[in-house]
Each structure stands twice: as C-alpha cells, then as structure tokens.
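Support reply, case 0932

Customer input (verbatim):
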Amino acid sequence: MVNQLKKQKVQQLTELISTAENFFLIKVGNIKHQQLEKIRKDINQYSAKIKFLKNSLFEKTINKLSSSKAEFREFRQKVFPLKENTAVVLDGTDIYEVLKKISEYAKDYEELQFKGGYIDSTVYDSQNLDRLSKLPSKQELLSKIYLSIKSPVSRLHTALQFNTTKVYLIIKELAKKQAN
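Our regenerated output:
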C-alpha cells in the first residue's frame, strides 16, 4: 500500500515537472512555517507554485524523465544527489522575478539556497541560478535602453532650442533698442 502511494506521488511529480516550462530547486533547511508561507504568498504574485518534496521521490521522478529527455540527464548530473530539505518552485508568469524574490529571502535566511534548475530549456546549477537572480529584469533593461536612446535626443533638442531662444532674445533686445 505504501509503495503504491509513493508510485502515485512519483507519477504526480512526473506530470508536474514534464508540463512545467521552468522549475528550480531550493534548499529550505529549518525555515519556520510562517516564513515559508510568506515566501509562498510573495511568489504566488507571479503565478509560481512551491512544492515541498522528498528527495528520493524527486530523484526517481527525474530518473524517469531522463530516459526520454537529455535535459533531465544533464539536470541529474549537475544537481544530484539531493540532500537536506528541498522544495521545487514551478513556472510562473516571470520566473526571473521569482528567482529574484527567492534570492532576496536567501539574504535574510541562511538556510534558503538554490540547488539547481531548468529554465528556458537550460539546466543551471546553484551558482548559475544565483548569478541569474542578480541580473536586471527585462523591464529594467528596457527602461535603461529607452533612457540611453532618449538622453542624446533630448540633449540635441535642448541644444537646438537654446540657440533659437538665444536668437529670439537677441532680436527682442535689438527691437527694444531701436524702439528707444
């Protein structure tokens, strides 16, 4: 009976992981329940799910999936063996923002660390996930590009406007002198 329950859990995990476009593992250590719920609520803003799991069942799931996809074989090589308490964070509207949120919490809680992940068809180890979480978001990059394009144009506009304003003021002064 217990064996059947484990098989069902492995099957559920297999379905979750195979349908997820992005996922990553985090070490949760001995973080208190209230803190974990706070993290869950924060990442829920981005439609991401966090699921706590048994390492052995997750390893069986990845082993099962690695028979059909090379990415999961690579994941198995980079991330396994799993130790300590683990949670998987799945999908979300913006997985990079979820990474940033988890990284922010990792600064507050030493027990919270990245273990590895599969994002945009690429396997990342813990160090690369940490680097990825520190990159600026797409919105930040777009605003920087916009400002870098806008800045020279606005300076040109000001320079051109300054000269016309200067000419206007000179003509206005000349007109006053002639009127006197």
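We compared this against your earlier run and they match. Two observations from our side: The first helix runs from residue 2 to 19. The chain has two domains: 2-135, 136-180. Please reopen the case if you see a mismatch on your end.
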